UniProtKB/TrEMBL annotation:
Histidine kinase domain: residues covered: 397-613
PANTHER family to which the protein is assigned, alphabetical: PAC DOMAIN-CONTAINING PROTEIN, PHYTOCHROME-LIKE PROTEIN CPH1
Enzyme class, first EC level, given as a word: transferase
Phylogenetic lineage: Bacteria, Pseudomonadati, Pseudomonadota, Betaproteobacteria, Burkholderiales
Protein name: histidine kinase
Record-linked CDD domains: HisKA (cd00082), PAS (cd00130)
Keyword presence, Kinase: yes
Tagged with keyword Kinase: yes
GO molecular function: phosphorelay sensor kinase activity
Domain PAC, first and last residues per copy: 74-126, 200-252, 326-377
Gene3D superfamilies, per database record: 1.10.287.130, 2.10.70.100, Histidine kinase-like ATPase, C-terminal domain, PAS domain
Stretches assigned to the PAS domain: 1-71, 127-197, 278-324
Length: 625
């Protein structure tokens, strides 16, 4: 090779060499020598082989042998040892140079350093293998699609679940892997993503290896290369069948619950006092007349509560701070001005962190309250009517008994007047008429006496009466009337009270009178709590005392005695006989009934009756009519 040519060959960016037609090395360039550390002489003939990695030599020689034998170009990859002993990968290519007759006159070869490319390829391959391992190890189903939408791969989790091969999977659009009802929608959605590159997200049913279809959430995202072109699509599938079934079940339960709440006029809520967060059921919104879905706070609730009952709500909130169960009634004042009665019950629970939560129910009891109120009215009216009736009955019987002798007296007096006015006066006849008048007068007075005797002697039964129990019964009877008037009633009965001797019904009548009077006395009271206290205690001398204290209008002490007079009343509808009858009943029991004004407000009406054993059975009734 002339100097000029060998200089040019030396400048080429590769290790260049030539060989004789029989394959022996003829020449290597300077770069070749510099790289391997061998001289041209050392490389000639077969010496060049020592520059290659022993593991790659056989394959390289075989390629070289085939090329020489066939006079055709050859190509092989092999590691060449650098002068410092480090091996690097080279691509060795060789071409035959022929003369005009096609005979090989020489071989020209070039070895190019491909170490970096090779490493990059190895890294990519290793990465791919690692990725494959990772994807296979995913506990969720992964599918990989080409940008055109062809299935390239799926992970083990996927194949195990569906029991199909890759080629069967490739036919997913037609082979029934997708539920027939979802197929069209899934394909349409898939095609859309493939064409516009937007992520895929949907829920659909797919057939498991055992033939059972289950719900899946399927999400797909494109993986883009540096230029932004889609390189692959990754799809993840999650089995959400249990969740879907639970949701369907919950949906059904919620619908059922809503229906039940609607039918039973009941709503439910949860409340966390520490954060103030409140959740309402649909029915509760309806009950309070609030737009469904509106945010509920204590202020929203308070705005719906009847102003007169707001204190009940505040008391309830205060009580709830201690984590106790709460139960109370209050009224709602709806935007249209109507009033509803609701009954609230809430149960306190604590979560794992000890946070207090209330779960409760609100029941619309308007109808029930209305009928209860109507019943209470009826009952109160009945009690009043009974009182009036007993008076009416008494009056009627007196009228009946007296009217006869009175008529007789009038007739006889008239007769004697007529006989005495006659000319001459008929004295005998007149005397007889006067005698008859006297007789009728006596009869009338006897009737009166008898009546009085009968009334007063009305033998008081001397049963053993448990006064506190009898009083409790009466308060129960008047419970609604008392509650309706917003009166707080307290009954304090001492323990171990002895029974009193008497007529339970009559004693209860007295208590009814005292309670109704107390209610009446508090009717106009609005500037202080309406309170009524019944105390039953043992009194000196083996008696039992019952006192009714109220915070009503009270009375002027100077009229204290007149209160017990028959027909004394200061009330518009009063008859003024309640206290007089009560006093008579108590006195018939050998007891005493009196009234005292309270220190600040109201009055106390008390009576004492002897306890059993001390009843003055022979003392006889007190004649007071
Ligand atoms: P009435 O209740 O029909 O008026 P009563 O004989 O029961 O008849 O009562 C007579 C009067 O006594 C009442 O009108 C009222 O002036 C007075 N009175 C009764 N109870 C009370 C009370 N608790 N507080 C104030 N005044 C009372």
């Amino acid at each position: 090779m002339d100097n000029e040519l060998s200089r040019r060959v030396d400048a080429l960016p590769g290790l260049v060499w030539t060989a004789f037609p029989d394959g022996r090395i003829e020449f290597v360039n300077r770069r070749w020598c510099e790289y391997t550390g061998l001289s041209v002489e050392e490389a000639s003939d077969d010496g060049w082989q020592t520059a290659f990695h022993p593991d790659d030599r056989a394959a390289l020689l075989e390629t070289w042998r085939v090329a020489v034998a066939s006079n055709a170009p050859g190509e092989a990859q092999a590691r060449m040892r650098r002068v410092d002993g480090v091996y690097r990968w080279f691509l060795c290519r060789v071409n035959p140079v022929t003369d005009g007759a096609g005979k090989v006159v020489t071989w020209c070869g070039i070895n190019t350093d491909i170490e970096e490319r090779k490493q990059a390829e190895d890294t990519a391959r290793a990465n791919e293998q690692r990725l494959q391992l990772v994807v296979d190890g995913f506990p969720t189903q992964v599918l990989i699609f080409s940008p055109a939408g062809e299935v390239l791969h799926a992970n083990r989790c996927f194949f195990d679940y569906f029991g199909v091969t890759l080629s069967e999977l490739k036919q997913w659009q037609t082979n029934g892997l997708t539920h027939p009802d979802d197929r069209e929608a899934v394909i349409a959605r898939f095609r859309e993503s493939m064409s516009n590159g937007k992520p895929y997200d949907g829920e659909s049913r797919h057939r498991r290896a055992d033939g059972v279809c289950r719900w899946f959430r399927v999400q797909g995202v494109p993986l883009r290369d540096k230029e932004g072109r889609i390189a692959l699509w990754y799809f993840l599938q999650r089995d959400i069948d249990d969740r879907v079934q639970t949701e369907a079940h919950l949906g059904k339960s919620a619908a059922l619950m809503a229906k039940v709440e609607q039918l039973s006029l009941r709503g439910s809520f949860s409340w966390r006092p520490t954060t103030g967060s409140i959740t309402w059921s649909e029915q509760l919104y309806r009950m309070f007349g609030i737009e469904p879905g509106a945010q509920i706070t204590m202020d929203t609730i308070a705005a719906g509560v009847h102003p007169d009952d707001l204190h009940l709500l505040h008391e309830m909130i205060e009580r709830a701070q201690d984590g106790k169960d709460v139960e109370f009634d209050h009224r709602l004042l709806l935007p249209n001005g109507s009033v509803k009665y609701v009954h609230i019950q809430a149960h306190a629970t604590r979560d794992v962190l000890g946070q207090l939560d209330y779960v409760g129910a609100v029941q619309d009891v308007t109808e029930r309250r209305r009928s209860e109120d109507a019943l209470a009215c009826l009952r109160a009216e009945l009690i009043h009517v009974c009182r009036v009736n007993s008076m009416g009955e008494l009056t009627a019987s007196i009228a009946h008994e007296i009217s006869q002798p009175l008529t007789g007296m009038t007739i006889n007096a008239g007769t004697s007047l007529r006989l005495l006015s006659a000319e001459p006066p008929k004295v005998e006849g007149a005397l007889e008429a006067v005698r008859r008048t006297i007789r009728d007068g006596r009869r009338a007075s006897e009737v009166m006496k008898r009546l009085r005797a009968r009334f007063n002697n009305h033998a008081v039964k001397t049963d053993a009466v448990d006064l506190s129990e009898a009083a409790r019964e009466v308060t129960e009877l008047l419970r609604d009337e008392i509650r309706e008037k917003r009166i707080v009633l307290q009954l304090k009965a001492a323990d171990d009270l002895p029974p009193v001797a008497g007529d339970r019904v009559q004693l209860q009548q007295v208590v009814v009178n005292l309670l109704l009077n107390a209610v009446q006395a508090m009717n106009e009271v609005d500037d202080r709590p309406r309170q009524m206290l019944i105390t039953i205690e043992r009194e000196d001398g083996d008696c039992v005392r019952l006192a009714v204290t109220d915070s009503g209008v009270g009375f002027d002490p100077q009229y204290a005695c007149r209160l017990f007079d028959a027909f004394y009343t200061t009330t518009r509808d009063g008859m003024g006989i309640g206290l007089s009858v009560s006093r008579r009943i108590i006195e018939n029991h050998g007891g005493r009934l009196w009234a005292t004004p309270n220190e600040r407000f109201g009055a106390t009406f008390s009576f004492v009756v002897p306890s059993l054993g001390d009843h003055p059975a022979n003392a006889g009734p007190v004649d007071r009519i």
